[in-house]
Amino acid sequence: MKPGQEIRVLTLESEGILRELRTPVGISEWMSKEEVEAGPLNPKKFRGIWDTGASSSAINHRVVEECELHPISRVKVQTADGERESEVYGITIYLPNEVAIGYIKATCGDLGTNTDVLIGMDVITVGDFAVTNADGKTFMSFRFPALEHIDFGKQKRTKPPKPSSQPVPKIGRNDPCPCGSGKKYKRCHGA
After folding, report:
1. Is 24 helix (H, G, I), strand (E, B) or coil?
2. Kindly report the CA angle at 188 between 56 and 143, in degrees rounded to 5?
3. Which residues contact 90 (CB under 8 A, 6 or more apart)?
4. What is the mean pLDDT of each run of 10 residues along the chain (191 residues)?
């Protein structure tokens, strides 16, 4: 960490176990470090999903159009549907903890109906990232810059863990989605 650098933390807390980690995210065109630091900036807001299985970040066509982005190259990408060619766009990502990460090369593709930005390992690895599930709740925390190694195996236990006595609540298709979107479960994460 650089002297005087501010530590920024983003924590997502959920009642119930989350199957997806979603946060709002801002996007603008590629900016230099000096431009990002000069702020304040007003990036366009989109729906993001955190994906540790993705080596790099991705955006959908809506982001390209609304941010008026222009491709900088083309690459072959491996997706769940197989290999395909994709245009690459230079973007700056703004996380909810007021961290701006510039010079991200994001591919473009179909990310599903509820996702505009896939936050991949190219972003996740610039900070400390942890996901825990205890007492029927999910906590995701991201800290920038990275400060330490988190090793649950080296943590001392004062008492053995007790099994959760709470059953995981069943979510009905017409119940509000536990992610807090305000949508019905069947139209959000139950799709």
Report:
1. strand
2. 40
3. 29, 30, 69, 72, 103, 104, 105, 106
4. 76 91 93 68 91 94 96 88 90 89 92 94 94 92 90 73 66 76 75 62
Q: Which CATH superfamily is domain 12-146+172-187 in?
A: Acid Proteases (2.40.70.10)
Which residue do the tokens 């000096």 mark?
A: 34
CB-count burial class (<10 Å; 0-12, 13-18, 19+) for 26: buried
Q: Tokens 């609540």 belong to which residue? A: 169
Q: Taking the model in full, what pTM does it have?
A: 0.75
| Residue 99 neighbours by CB under 8 Å, 6+ apart | 8, 10, 127, 144
The phi and psi torsions of 154 (rounded to 5 degrees) equal: -95, -10
Tokens of 132: 């825990």
Q: Say if CB 127 and CB 148 are below 8 A apart.
A: no
